[in-house]
Write a structure and sequence with these properties.
single chain; mainly alpha; 2 helices
Length: 58
């Protein structure tokens, strides 16, 4: 059985949704804050990758 290949955008969006769901489910405020920081860092990396892909395509 083979699975269809995900595009980078699909993979990024799936991981972001998983992070958001984990943040929403977390009850410990310290852990929740840590997860929010991780989510923000991942968003910054996503932006940097997007810029690199745009430069490469140009």
């Amino acid at each position: 059985m083979t699975f269809p290949q995900e595009t980078y955008a699909q993979w990024r969006d799936r991981l972001a949704a998983n992070r958001k769901a984990r943040i929403e489910a977390e009850v410990d405020p310290v852990e929740r804050e840590r997860l929010e920081v991780v989510d923000a860092a991942c968003g910054a990396v996503d932006q940097a990758v997007g810029l690199m892909m745009a430069v490469e395509a140009a």
